Amino acid sequence: MAKLAILEFPDERLRTKAKAVQSVDDEVRKLVDDMLETMYDAQGIGLAATQVDVHRRVVVMDVSDDNSQPLVLINPSYTPIGDEKEPLSEGCLSIPEHYAEVPRYLKVELKALDRNGEPYTLEADGLLAHCIQHEYDHLEGVLFVDYLSSLKRDRIRKKMEKRHKQMQGA
Ligand code: NI
Fold it and tell me: Residues that bind Fe cation, according to the entry (predicted)?
């Protein structure tokens, strides 16, 4: 397994719409394993392939407290169950150190393929439902800052650009 580099906002590559996976083969499984390692190393609860500059519809997640429940979502789609939304504070490995409340559907039904290419369905609520919607957005080139006012988004962009300058200078 190998740790992958995570793209950071406002990198334009994060705006790429990912393409569907045609067959879940060893190459895809290696990507999944590398993404899980990268996510756990960065102490995240979700990572989309878009964030590691691979523009295919692959997501990994683990919302457990002890990294014991890895979840693999290949070609995911979801439908809201009910129309109730709740705001929850969100972060993103591509926008480190910034958090904001984003309203998401309370409950969703997820459909995806697992790491063996087997289809599954999952009813999710709470943090998991939130995470599914956040990661799905990544595959569409959407970031949580897109839900904020342009004023707030610009403020975060400036801070991120400053961070990247400092990293280059170090
Ligand atoms: Ni994210």
Answer: 92, 134, 138
